[in-house]
Amino acid sequence: MNGTVFQADGRTPAPNVILYVHHTNAEGRYANGTGESEWSRRHGRLRGWLRTRVNGTYSITTIKPAPYPGRNNPAHIHMFVLDPRKPDPYWIDDVVFDGEFGVYEQYRTARLNQGGPGIVKLTSRPDGMLHARRDIRLLA
Ligand SMILES: [Fe+2]
Where do the domains of the chain lie? Predict the structure, then answer.
C-alpha cells in the first residue's frame, strides 16, 4: 500500500508526518504481540510506524488482513496520524477493501471520511503482490 499525505488543503504534500499502522493477521486476529508494551500486546505483531518522505509519500509492505472471525466488520487496516504541527495523534478512517465482505452500502455511508476516504481498490501486480493506494488529507 502506498499513498501521499496532504495538508488539509488536499494539495500540499505533508512531509515528516508519522503514521502508525496496525491490522489483523490472515486469521483476523491481532496476534503474536510481545510483552514489550501494551500496544504490542493489544495490536499484535502486524504494526509499525513510518515517516512520510519529503514529497509526502509513504509505502507499506505487509500482508492482507482478514476480517474478525464470526463478525460483520470488513477486513481493515487501522491508521493513526501524528502531524508535527499538532500536539496529539489522531485516528483516521480505516482502510477497507472495495467490493469485499462487509463493505456494503450501510457501512459506506456511515463512514466519517476522516483523513479522506479509506475505501481502496486492490489491484494485482504481475509479481503477484496486491496493491492499494490510500492518500490521506490531514485535519485542519
Ligand atoms: Fe480492528
Answer: 2-137
CB 67 within 8 A of CB 58: no
Ligand 1 centre to CA of 125 (Å) is 26
Cell of 29: 486476529
- SS3 string, 67-129, reads CCCCCCCCCEEEEEEECCCCCCCEEEEEEEECCCCCCCHHHHHHCCCCCCCCEECCEECCCCC
Q: What is the pTM of this model?
A: 0.95
Instruction: Say how far apart CA 2 and CA 19 lie, in whole Å.
Output: 12
Which sign does the torsion angle of CA 51, 54, 56, 61 carry?
A: negative
2-137: what CATH class?
mainly beta
Which residues in the chain land under pLDDT 50?
none
> How far, in Å, from the CA of 76 to the mean position of ligand 1?
6
